[in-house]
Amino acid sequence: RNMSSAGPEGRKKMRECEGLIDSLVYYIQGAIADHEPNDKATENCVCILHNLSYQLEIELPESYAQSIYMQRRNISSNDKTPGCFGTRSRKVKEKQQDTPLPEEKSNPKGVESLWHSTLIRIYLSLIAKSTRNYTQEASLGALQNLTAGTGPMPFAVARTVVQKANGLPSIRAMLHASHPAVKKTAVSLLRNLSRNTSLQSDIAREVLPDLVSILPESVPGSDITCETTASICYALFNLTQGSSHNARLLLSAHGLPKVITISMNDSNMFSKASRAASVLLYSLWSHTDLHSAYKK
């Protein structure tokens, strides 16, 4: 677990180690089958897989990259892959819609397992069943890492989480977790998922009211709360910028007074949250059909 956080070279060596990833996945599957999701070794295994999934799209060996992206013929190859929190550009969203999804192998081996639907379902199962904060956070974090880029792999993982594996209810429950780091990672994952335009109506219907409900009534009180608040605002921005219906949903969930309060705070400590809230307000105002409702 310690070695897996040793940087790009350490991750590369561990991903290449024959049988290592397969063994970790096998162990977690056994723990879930035996109804032992709170096992300490399971926590360690998930944390290792979380670390090995970091920047996976960028660090994949050329042979894997070619096999995953071979269908990506009409997409420019010089796209820059953004970091963990992704990009909010409309062009990227449109491009993402045209990206063909990679074909999934029925029996993945080694590094292929890291983005396979089998492991995605394992993470969602642990999020739902484990009560260990580190296990929950690592499972959410692995999914956050896998959905961070703009290529076919992150898009396919997002689609699996939202539509194929019905993962939103488990993620939504984590929005109300008492542990701040678990809540923060759940929000960051939803922020990544919300960049996919084809998934936005599902996400808004399932979690938009919950995102609004966990927005603070006043200025956030700590760095982690401030960062979580900023991520919530950007997720709501993604969900509402192209949808008047979703903007109205935010309004009916009494989100507007909260967003206004957060945006008006200009102290340095909370500038990230207030800037995100201001971006969200600007986007909400673009829905001219809602102006009279906003004014009320």
From TrEMBL:
Keywords carried by this UniProt record: Cell adhesion, Cell junction, Repeat
Annotated stretches, region: Disordered: 79-109
Compositionally biased intervals (Basic and acidic residues): 94-107
Any GO BP: intermediate filament bundle assembly
Keyword Repeat: yes
Membrane-spanning segments: none
Family membership noted in the UniProt record: Belongs to the beta-catenin family.
Protein name: PKP2 protein
Organism per entry: Rhipidura dahli
